[in-house]
Amino acid sequence: METVGGTIYSNGRLFRGSVEFDGGIIQDVREEDPPGHCTARGLIIPLLANCHSHIGDACLRGRFDQNASLEEIVRPPDGFKHRALTGCEDAIVSDSIGSAIEEMRSYGIRKFIDFRESGIKGVRQLRSAIEIHQFPECTILSRPAELKYDEAEVELLLSESDGMGVSSVSDWPSEDLQALADHVTGRGKIFSLHASESEREDIDHVLQLKPDFLVHMSRAADEDLQACAEEDVPIVICPRSNLRFGIEIDVSRMLDSGAELCLGTDNAMFHDLSILDEMRAIYLNRHNSRPVVPQEILKLAVENSQKVLRDKTMISISPGSRCEFMVVTAGSDGSPGDVLGGITKSAVALIAHGREIWRDTFG
């Protein structure tokens, strides 16, 4: 039997207590500090989900012009990313994808959604890496090799992926994008796209595609966010990526619109794949029109991800539940304020995934 203690987040609550676990199962949760030795102390939270990544460009981390604009780096088909990946050896791309998956595990990520470029070749590269690195689990959203709809290509992609994740309505011919969206949703697969990232886009045009979720919406107007809330379309936000390119994002405004938000890390070439750092970016974000409290941020990182993942599993740190939690330390006691806003960068002291335990994975 092992015990961890500190501040626990479960079912929307933060409380002081301890968790006893053994054999991959939580045996007891007590709302009191543990009387004896603890394996680890800190903020005890469920394992997290990264709802938007591009890990295929991990091999380019640190290799792009730091002064270039977002469009110059990532816009298809001629942005730096697309040109650089075309010239990369397959083995280098594949190895970096595997390293990115391991990096996410070390940050306590249990599942991630990857927008995988490069057509069927890109999907198969990612699938090969997943077979080797089996945790965290991956939802693969593929993408046609070119900005056009080809029925046979889309059918092949959907046979080997979980859906489609495309760039934006601004990049695609309208008829092709609508045909693509109709094909994907007709197959019961996930359809998603970036929207209003660096400039506001027509939300009616976006929503008529019937997306399962949108990514960014950082330049969206209040009425655009409210339209997403009314249509029950979640939004994945990537605060660090936005802020890196000078895109001011008011997360409190987005929350107050009623839209359901969750978190992603965006391109692996920009920074590490830590959802904890995305949470910290929200907490410290000076562009928020009101403070965003730890419970709100934890909900984005834990419960809200379930819808976009199409995962009906109950996430809870409670007796009888499978071990799917982590212990995060920072400062003196790993309180939510220390982890999200303290001077000392947080570290992952323990990750429990079923019977598997990893200790001091990152920090």
Notes on the protein architecture:
By secondary structure, the protein is of the alpha/beta class. It folds into 2 domains: 91 residues, Urease, subunit C, domain 1 (Roll), CATH 2.30.40.10; 262 residues, Metal-dependent hydrolases (TIM Barrel). It contains 14 helices and 16 strands. It has a 9-stranded parallel sheet. The chain has a 7-stranded mixed sheet with strand order 3-2-1-4-14-15-16. The radius of gyration is 20 Å and the shape is globular. The model has no long low-confidence stretch (mean pLDDT 93).
SSE order and pairing:
Blueprint: E1 2-10, E2 13-22, E3 25-30, E4 40-46, E5 48-54, H1 70-74, H2 80-86, H3 90-106, E6 109-115, H4 119-132, E7 137-142, H5 151-160, E8 163-166, H6 174-186, E9 190-195, H7 203-207, E10 213-216, H8 222-231, E11 235-237, H9 239-244, H10 251-256, E12 261-263, E13 266-267, H11 275-284, H12 294-301, H13 305-309, E14 324-329, H14 336-341, E15 347-353, E16 356-362
Parallel strand pairs: 1-4, 5-6, 5-13, 6-7, 7-8, 8-9, 9-10, 10-11, 11-12
Antiparallel strand pairs: 1-2, 2-3, 4-14, 14-15, 15-16
